[in-house]
Amino acid sequence: MGSFIIRDVIHGDIEFDDNIKQILNCPEFQRLHRIHQLSCEYLVFPTATHTRFSHSIGTYHVMKKLIEHFTVKLEEKGYKVKKEDKQLAYVAALLHDIGHGAFSHTFEKIFSLKSHEAWTMSIIKDKNTHIHKKIIKLYGKAFLQKLIDVMSKSYKNQESSNIFSIIATLVSSQTDADRMDYLLRDSYFTSVTNGRYDIERLIKSFGVTQINSELRIYINEKYMSTLEEYVLARYFMHKEVYQHTTKRHMEICLCLIFKRVKEILESKTKIFCDDALKNLILKKNITVSDYLKTDDSYFMYHIMAWTKSKDDILVFLCNCFLNREQFDIEVSYDKDMLKDKINKLLKKHNKQEIKDLNNEYFYIETQKQVNLYVSSTENIWIKSKDDDKLYDLSQKSLIINRENAIKDYSSKNIFISGTLFKIIYGIDLKL
């Protein structure tokens, strides 16, 4: 059969062969249509309604460009990139986010379960999923195991471990296909223009060398400005989008909703809740089948239903989230001072004093912490034009130097809800 094309706003025409098209059509992959890429970011940036589906096919497209580039570079080093190696890279890129839960990363904060990467592995390994069956049918069992090895970076015993290491780096690293797509995509849909960078030139900048029998990806120093543009784009997107105060506010509100539902369920009070969601909230045995039910629509249906609950705290929190109502009082002074003021008020009305504000429903604290570049866990290597040696980015960049790289941008905001305080304690909050 011929190729299949999807028109994408970021990359233009994205072409898929018939095998990839069949994977796209699996229910587990189609589910990504129903998960926002940026959680509840649309409450801040109204056009940020793009999905994990569009990001995943974008990542696949970027991976194809990277593999095309590295095939030439590796063959110059005497390494043959086989058709199966390319297919592994494409499928790994396509499926890298298949394990995301509802509201993307917020899901992990709410339920404190295993990471979306771990769920991705579970979905691919589960013999009952369409994805698992389709991969075996199209590519074979050996391919499936190699895919798992590449995505989990456990490829040391593979015959082509050097090629595998390159693929794994392109799937997950500081300069991977995932980041290359989401920075451009998220920048476009939020209209935050300083998240843009020159992807074609960045791909062109990559080289590969062999150090102690291992292959290592680097960037030629002459393309330093292109790399700096990319790193700065990531920094500004975290500062202005991913860690936006209002977005964090709404995420915490979402977490408080499910915290309250958990308390209601544990008290045996009757409340509407699907069995799969109940198992998630109470941290009972969660099957892959149950997990795959979780998408944004599924959660929103429950949140809307809970606005009719008999629990006033839950109703208030659900309405706050649905209607983008932030807690009404922003506190400009110290958290301990706030607690003292509130406890004096509670004591005056013969109410039990608060021990920890973080456990209170009327209290929200948003924090923003952004690194420009951190090399302690993973390096971006630069090939010097002077001596052909590899150096960490922070050693060669005048912008992203060691001094700047270890500095964090941080801020904290405290909000409280006078309305919710009165619902809980029956007292008007006057600070």
From TrEMBL:
<dbReference type="InterPro" id="IPR006674">
    <property type="entry name" value="HD_domain"/>
</dbReference>
<protein>
    <recommendedName>
        <fullName>HD/PDEase domain-containing protein</fullName>
    </recommendedName>
</protein>
<dbReference type="InterPro" id="IPR050135">
    <property type="entry name" value="dGTPase-like"/>
</dbReference>
<dbReference type="Pfam" id="PF01966">
    <property type="entry name" value="HD"/>
</dbReference>
<dbReference type="GO" id="GO:0008832">
    <property type="term" value="F:dGTPase activity"/>
</dbReference>
<feature type="domain" description="HD/PDEase">
    <location>
        <begin position="48"/>
        <end position="192"/>
    </location>
</feature>
<dbReference type="GO" id="GO:0006203">
    <property type="term" value="P:dGTP catabolic process"/>
</dbReference>
<dbReference type="InterPro" id="IPR003607">
    <property type="entry name" value="HD/PDEase_dom"/>
</dbReference>
